[in-house]
Specification:
heterodimer, A: alpha/beta, Rossmann fold, 7-stranded mixed beta sheet, 5-stranded mixed beta sheet, B: alpha/beta, 8-stranded mixed beta sheet, 3-stranded antiparallel beta sheet, 32% helix, binds flavin-adenine dinucleotide, binds iron/sulfur cluster
Chain lengths: 641, 369
């Protein structure tokens, strides 16, 4: 269905959508005037879609340079009376938290909804973070949809709630809601007549005495929470065992109860709002229960808050027992509070709590066992032809040549994989967006204390704009000595090729002014070079020479992401001339296949020679320059170099 | 040798220990060893236990007598200067080489001659401005050879260009190199066919060796440029106790003692100041800067020198009787100094010298006194 489903204008019709599409649809139905985001999985598609529709529905959408700016823009639009949506991943909430905490204190005007896509198990994240703790800290109500349908409806409701109480509201989704597809009943897309303005006497100011008002607003939500239409209870009245859950975990809980045949015994209370808690509803159910079981992702957020609530009502609830992450009953293979939930984990927990037998269905396990040896071992790897592979090899070579044990600081993006074999295990630190550059600032000041290793920070182009610039200003200001290598593949590759300020295009597809990395660095007065990483030898030489001098330096290694480049003009064929490849007699120990390890450089076991997987090959021709025998050849098309 | 040795041993015994002569021949032999600036490094373990990188390195175990036998087909008689057929003064008769050359321009003249005769299709040289660390150049014509004339007194790993040239399709090469580089080339030519056999082995047609008593660390170029006061350096020479820098506005002298700290430690372990395994070796005369000392060593060396003389490319004259002992003394002293250092355990025992060779060196006064 995808994109087009968002355009259906037949209220009442049921349309198949992903959770991300449902949120976008909800935002449009809510009549948003402003949408902003920095791309992050699992929610990157929301703004991607909104950007494409902004023109049609007459609202503004942008890929912001980072989440803090994104939130500030959205808040401003809210101050001016426009409903605004801001989308990010939990790491983004970390970035935006300073503003978030203040905006929630100053209060807002039109509805402001913060959509956060948590990524339990970190499928496409460096860390798995439960953003609810931050949203609670920022005094925000937290809403948790379980399905795409709810995602759309909750988005609409979130705007109303936000407007009513004048607080930003968090819509907390998880990957399995964002990426799942389900039927969504579409509503009306109202034509809106917007006149944004800020009244002469309106003030949005963060001052400490507003804290009390902020708490009062939350109390107001607390009273409303029991009536929140997305809370649901399923199961017998007065169930002795009560499952308390929210979000995608509700689906797992429902399945597990059914699987165990406990529908008649176990009650499931699904919270549509996980902060503030619907206290009356909870206490009512807990009073009759003997056992409360918490099923949620990732950390025991609801569990802790409910136990806290229960402690205040201890006498009424006695002899209630709690089971969850804290008790160790609800735990995935890596332990409580780590990784995703699934029906099996929930069933195991419930079986233990209820004293029934359960063994996971053997069928799937057996077939998996049979399959495992047949599945080839695969490392996380850069795509075939990825310029990062060439960049990492060149930087690694230059550092070895330099011979002073240069330290390489990593960052967040596809190139984070440089910690592994595909990047020759080069990266020695990986933290948050831009933090490698800040850390380089620190290491680059230690020479006076005997630190004599050269320092290299590696950062992607999108990350450069996101968070590296302040660190770079700091470096120049404080005379820190390091080399910043910007891996510029001319896109935000990791999250699906969203545009950034270096590209000359914005979220709505408009042509905008390009701000290349080198211009930014030059503007800061930092010496900058630009080179093509596909020229491995030249890049090695250049990095080596840059390492020989003091001061802050920037090197832009520019080459389009191979996945984008592959779509372009007719590319030449790259192949191994097996007459020239001498296999294991070469002495290179299968360099192309084993060491450089581009996924297209495979081994022809029959002939015991190298061969190129031409289906996978993106025609970058880097291996052509690296093969010591010159056995890799290029035929036709436009040749590189 | 007991255990098979490979790149990790090379790294440990030679590169990391400071014994590396920076010849550059291991760089580019495979994709794992590279050169940049004036450094050579193993950039990634290749995963193989043994390798030709280790075998061809001039700073891994080298049996001097075996080298003589393999390169010249006989043991040496002269234990100071090695095998030779002729020791003469020589200079280029072609004005361009005579003018641009460090001394008599014999090296440039011969390299250009080999190219022009079609004996080789490329010459591996050290090129670039006089005030900078040189880079490896593969010259394919006279102009390119002349552009490389002049000595740069640092140990540039120019031999990496040998593999590059062969990969680019040049199938017959002249190589100009320092003694360590000559030794590396000859060790490469002695490799047995097998895994990792370098395609360059049979592509090196002619080896012109330089005299070299030591070379300097890359830091020398900073010093030179400072002394030149920002002027472009045209030429650097070490006539005797001074290092002389020539610029457009004149020349400046730096006492040798001032550059001594920049001597590469590895050079203090080098047993061969005259490129003993080259086809011809060329040095200064320490006497007349318009001439070179030329040692003709191999039959091929003789053939080329004869041809060059016959065609009026170079001229030679007898080595002045009274100068010869000075040459012998200088070389012999250097060798004895190195032997002493090696015997004290430095250099990881790269030099395998038979008792006979050793005694002969200590005994032999030859023509030198
Ligand atoms: C580091 C070094 C130390 C030397 N020490 C001595 C010495 O102590 N006593 C002595 O008699 N002679 C020494 N020489 C040799 C001398 O400087 C001349 O190179 C030699 O006499 C040839 O003179 P030419 O006029 O024929 O040279 P040219 O015709 O000018 O040719 C010189 C050639 O040397 C090559 N070359 C220049 N620098 C290097 C380098 N760093 N590595 C490899 N090749 C290079 C160039 O490619 C050029 O082809 C040394 C040379 C070098 C490079
Ligand atoms: S001396 Fe030459 S072969 Fe040996 S390690 Fe150094 S560069 Fe390589």
């Amino acid at each position: 269905m995808s994109f087009l489903s968002l355009l259906v204008n037949e209220p009442g019709r049921s349309v198949l959508m992903t959770g991300n599409e449902a949120v976008a649809r909800g935002a449009i139905e809510a009549g948003i005037g402003y949408a902003s985001s920095y791309p992050g999985s699992p929610t990157a598609e929301i703004l991607g879609n909104l950007g494409r529709l902004a023109g049609d529905y007459h609202f503004y959408a942008e890929w912001s340079v980072n989440e803090k700016v994104a939130l500030e823009g959205a808040a401003a639009a809210s101050f001016a009376g426009l409903r605004s949506i801001c989308i990010m991943k939990p790491n983004g909430v970390n970035v935006a938290l300073d503003s978030l905490a203040s905006i929630s204190q100053s209060g807002i005007k039109a509805g402001l909804v913060l959509v956060v896509g948590d990524d339990p198990a970190g499928h496409s994240s460096t860390n798995e973070e439960d953003s609810r703790y931050l949203e609670k800290l920022a005094h925000m109500p937290i809403l948790e949809p379980s399905t795409p349908r709810e995602a759309k409806e909750m988005t609409l409701a979130a705007f109303e709630l936000s407007e009513k109480i004048k607080l930003p509201v968090a819509l907390r989704c998880v990957t399995r809601v964002c990426h799942a597809s389900g039927n969504v009943t579409v509503g009306e897309i109202a034509g809106v007549n917007r006149k944004p303005a800020i009244g002469k006497n309106e003030r949005f100011i963060t001052v400490k005495f507003l804290h009390a008002l902020q708490e009062a607003k939350l109390n107001q939500v607390r009273r409303m929470a029991d009536a929140w239409p997305f809370n649901r209870y399923a199961g017998p009245e007065n169930a002795k065992t009560l499952v308390i859950t929210a979000g995608a975990s509700f689906m797992y809980a429902r399945e597990a109860v059914k699987e165990l045949g406990l529908e008649g015994e176990v009650g499931i209370l699904k919270l549509g709002i996980s902060w503030p808690l619907p206290e009356k509803t909870l206490l009512g159910r807990l009073k009759t229960a003997e056992k409360a079981v918490f099923i949620e992702e990732v950390e025991p957020f609801i569990e802790e808050n409910v136990m806290h609530l229960a402690a205040q009502h201890m006498m009424d609830l006695y002899p209630l027992q709690f089971y969850g992450q804290k008790s160790g009953h609800v735990a995935g293979p890596s332990g409580p509070g780590i990784g995703e939930m699934n029906p099996e984990i929930v069933a195991m927990a419930l079986a233990a709590v209820c004293g029934v037998n359960y063994s996971p269905p053997p069928g799937c396990d057996e077939s998996v066992k049979k399959l495992v040896p047949k599945v080839p071992q695969r490392d996380l790897a850069f795509c075939a032809g990825c310029p990062h592979r060439a960049s990492f090899w060149a930087v690694k070579s230059a550092l070895a040549l330099d011979g002073r044990d240069g330290v390489v600081l990593g960052d967040i993006g596809c190139y984070t994989m440089g910690v592994g074999r595909t990047g020759f295990n080069l990266l020695q630190t990986v933290h948050a967006m831009g933090s490698g550059v800040g850390m380089a600032c620190g290491l680059g000041k230690l020479a006076d204390y005997g630190f004599n290793q050269p320092v290299v920070a590696m950062v992607g182009d999108s990350t450069f704009y996101h968070a590296a610039i302040p660190a770079l200003v700091n470096a120049r200001y404080n005379k820190s000595s390091f080399l910043l290598v910007v891996l510029d593949n001319e896109t935000t590759a990791m999250t699906g090729h969203q545009p950034h300020p270096g590209m000359g295009k914005n979220a709505m597809g408009e042509e905008v002014v390009r701000m290349p990395v080198e211009s930014v660095a030059e503007g800061l007065g930092i010496p900058v070079s630009v080179h093509d990483p596909y020229d491995v030898e030249g890049t090695t030489e250049l990095v080596f020479h840059l390492l020989q001098s003091e001061g802050t330096k920037v090197l832009v290694l520019r080459r389009a992401c191979a996945l984008i480049a592959a779509k372009g003009t007719k590319k030449p064929r790259v192949y191994v001339d097996q007459e020239l490849c001498i296999g294991d007699s070469c002495g290179c120990n299968r360099f192309c296949n084993q060491t450089f390890s581009c996924t297209a450089n495979i081994w022809d076991v029959k002939n015991n020679k190298a061969v190129i997987d031409e289906v996978v090959c993106n025609r970058c021709q880097v291996c052509v320059s690296l093969c010591p025998r010159g056995a890799i050849k290029v035929e036709g098309g436009e040749q590189i170099g | 040798m007991s255990r098979k040795k490979g790149s990790l041993d090379l790294k440990q015994e030679v590169m990391d220990s400071g014994a590396c002569a920076n010849c550059g021949l291991c760089a580019g032999l495979c994709p794992y060893i590279k050169a940049a600036g004036e450094r050579v490094a193993l950039v990634h373990p290749c995963g193989l236990e043994e390798g030709n990188c280790y075998r061809l390195c001039p700073r891994t175990s080298t049996d001097w007598e075996q080298m003589d036998k393999r390169v010249f087909g006989r043991e040496r008689v002269d234990h100071v200067l090695g095998n030779h057929r002729e020791i003469v003064f020589a200079r280029s008769l072609q004005m361009d080489a005579a003018e641009k050359g460090q001394y008599g321009g014999v090296v440039s003249a011969l390299a250009a001659f080999l190219l022009e005769q079609g004996r080789v299709s490329g010459a591996v040289l050290a090129g670039g401005p006089a005030g900078e660390a040189p880079r490896a150049v593969v010259a394919t014509n006279r102009d390119e050879v002349l552009a490389c004339a002049g000595s740069r007194y640092s140990a540039s790993p120019t031999l990496s260009a040998v593999h590059r040239a062969v990969k680019e399709g040049i199938n017959s090469l002249a190589v100009v190199g320092r003694p360590c580089q000559v030794l590396a080339l000859r060790k490469m030519q002695g490799l047995e066919d097998g895994p990792g056999y370098p395609p360059a082995v049979d592509k090196v047609e002619f080896v012109i060796g330089l005299f070299c008593f030591w070379s300097l660390e890359t830091g020398i170029y900073d010093l030179l440029n400072r002394k030149a006061g920002g002027q472009r350096i045209l030429k650097v020479d070490i006539p005797q106790d001074f290092l002389t820098i020539t610029t457009a506005s004149g020349s400046a002298n730096i006492p040798v003692d001032e550059v001594r700290p920049l001597i590469r430690p590895a050079c203090r372990l080098c047993f061969d100041p005259t490129s003993e395994f080259a086809d011809v070796s060329v040095g200064s005369t320490e006497y007349d800067p318009r001439w070179n000392t030329l040692i003709v060593r191999s039959a091929k060396g003789k053939e080329i020198v004869d041809a060059a003389r016959a065609r009026g490319i170079i001229e030679t004259r007898a080595y002045p009787e009274e100068r010869l002992p000075l040459l012998y003394q200088a070389v012999r002293n250097k060798k004895l100094r190195v032997l002493q250092a090696l015997e004290s355990g430095q250099g990881a025992g790269y030099l395998q010298l038979t008792g006979q060779y050793r005694e002969a060196l200590q005994r032999e006064r030859g023509m030198n006194q």
